[in-house]
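I'm stuck. Please check this protein.
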Amino acid sequence: MIFWESFFIFLIGLILGSFLNVVIYRLPQGKSLIFPASHCPKCETPLRWYHNIPLLSFLFLKGRCAYCKASISWQYPLVEFLSGLLLVLLYLKFKPHYGVIVFSFFAFFGLNLLCLSFIDLFHKEIPDSLSFSLIFSGWILALLSKNPLSLSFLESLLSSFAGIGLLFFINELYYLLAKRDGLGMGDFKLMGGLGAYLGYKSFFNVLFFASLIGVVCFILMRIYQKLSREDLETSEDLLKKEIPFGPFLSIAGLIYLFYPQSLL
């Protein structure tokens, strides 16, 4: 029974992941999420329904547009698969013990983090509509007394503002040392959303794991450059680049969500 339930949830996740791809592509450009219908971003030819089947269409089309044969970004099947996987993990964690309402809120939480992570990765920005929706929905969940982390509405409210203030304070310290901003306003609001759902007790864990994952990614990028024999940028040049912190915060937030009683 649990297998078929998980399989059904995975399919729903694939469909939602297909919509997230639309959001990731259109929201930063200020385009409508509904009109026009799905089309190739290269030749702008409208796609038929069977070109939009999550995962399968990418495989059948061999990663190319059916009309102009332009390459389809790896982002599309990856977001669809991650959406399905994340939804199943959240379902198994929350539905049996806390019910549909809690699962629905945290499904929104997880898919929102996935969406804004890819937007931040490609566009170096986090839309206010996504970060504020995290904050407000976290408050509503606490107001309904449904938060599995036992957050009261007041604690959720204060934690969201504390998260924003904490990253603002860290950024100010960094500015004093480096004479430039290290974090963006989108990161502040994202931390506010994490605070609304996870509470202030999560902050140390979230910042630790986000920083750790960021350092690991930095090292892997250097190794890749060396193995591929690309022109190596100096560490100073790499540190001056705008490296999005939103994806690292999102991953760290999900780690805490699944393992709140971590060693930290």
Observations:
- The mean pLDDT is 90.
